[in-house]
Write a structure and sequence with these properties.
Layout: E1 5-8, E2 11-14, H1 40-43, H2 62-67
Antiparallel strand pairs: 1-2
């Protein structure tokens, strides 16, 4: 059995027959995205610039900073 519905005040209301599901029925919901999904940059834009004061040579010397090995 499959239903489609809309969320109203935190409750999922079936589009067709609201009485088709008995009280206490277990259901599984799948979110259907409207339109195009967000890009990686759009999803994580809020974190841009969150880490500050990184070493300028971090990319070249990541083993030194991560593992404590001598710098190359």
């Amino acid at each position: 059995m499959e239903f489609e519905g809309t969320v109203h005040d935190g409750l999922i209301v079936p589009d067709d027959d609201a009485n088709a599901l008995p009280d206490g029925a277990r259901v599984r919901c799948t979110i259907v995205a409207d339109g195009k999904p967000k890009t990686f940059g759009e999803r994580y834009a809020q974190f841009k610039g969150a880490i500050k004061d990184l070493a300028e040579d971090l990319a070249d010397q990541h083993e030194h900073y991560r593992l404590g090995t001598p710098k190359r």
